[in-house]
Amino acid sequence: MTAIPLRPPRRLVDLTLDGEPVRAPEGSTLLDACRAAGKDIPTLCQGDTLTPKNACRVCVVEVEGARTLAPACSRRVEQDMEVRTDTERARHSRKVVLELLASSTDLSTTPRAAEWIEEYGAEPDRFGADAARVDEEPKVDNDLYVRDYDKCILCYKCVDACGEQWQNTFAIAVAGRGFDARISTEHDAPLTDSACVYCGNCIEVCPTGALSFKTEFDMRAAGTWDEAAQTETTTVCAYCGVGCNLTLHVQENEIVKVTSPHDNPVTHGNLCIKGRFGYQHVQNHAQNRD
Q1: Which PANTHER family does the UniProt entry name for this protein (predicted)?
Q2: For every residue of the chain, which 3-state class applies, written as one string?
Q3: Residue 208 and which of 44, 101, 134, 282 are 20 to 30 A apart at CA?
Q4: Could you report the per-residue pLDDT of 34-61, keeping only the tens digit for each?
Q5: Which domain holds residue 68?
Q6: Any idea what the CATH number is for the domain that residue 116 is in?
């Protein structure tokens, strides 16, 4: 058995958060330090398995001596740094960002979006009925997952998950510029004609529901989707010997979707097409047994 070398512990950095002295590991982000201190900083584009992209700008905080607000998701802690997370300037910035996002896209399935809009007093309707919106119909071109770009905030997480950070398939990218920028396949081809391998790792990281399981999309349309009534059970995928962990989301004794724990050292939240979508045999076995 090969011994795993021990790494030296990371040096602790002393900084101040809202006037309170805290210590954080060197190399960690301000968002990490805030969460460790129990401070609730809103964020949409940050993902615990991806490199920060600084796309949504909802997590901005004020750093003493800095000319501009800093994105907490990517700014690293520094010795003797003084950070204020709840200043009028930071709150106003978050309010405007939430207003712009909610006025142009559908945030109805974005976790905590409604809560943050209320907390920061955001008024998306103040831009009027003529405010430009995405207004795209959902793309349903396969039986596994749906692309609803009306809910997309261009956080780039799906692009990173499909690209060099995880899957290395590069089936999707950002096309267009300005307000016409959108997530797209190469030449805007149907998903079935693209390089997509249907691993669903883009769904795993999507923060708004722009990418969702076909089962979830259909159940939401029928009004039967109920996360409060769902149970989650983590098991091991039986398709091969890698040992990927699966979390089965079950509602009314049926699997409605499959995810993977982000802290699992094997998968880090990622799966292949079999692990994420190949659960029908379990359903069929249970139905035949009944």
Answers
A1: HYDROGENASE SUBUNIT, PHOTOSYSTEM I IRON-SULFUR CENTER-RELATED
A2: CCCCCCCCCCCEEEEEECCEEEEEECCCEHHHHHHHCCCCCCCCCCCCCCCCCCCCCCCEEEECCCCCCEECCCCECCCCEEEECCCHHHHHHHHHHHHHHHHHCCCCCCCCHHHHHHHCCCCHHHHCCCCCCCCCCCECCCCCEEECHHHCCCCCHHHHHHCCCCCCCCCEEEECCHHHCEEEEHHHCCHHHCCCCCCCHHHHHCCCCCEEEHHHHHHHHHCCCCHHHCEEEEEECCCCCCCCEEEEEEECCEEEEEECCCCCCCCCCCCCHHHHHCCHHHHHHHHHHC
A3: 282
A4: 999 999 999 999 988 998 888 899 999 9
A5: 9-131
A6: 3.10.20.740
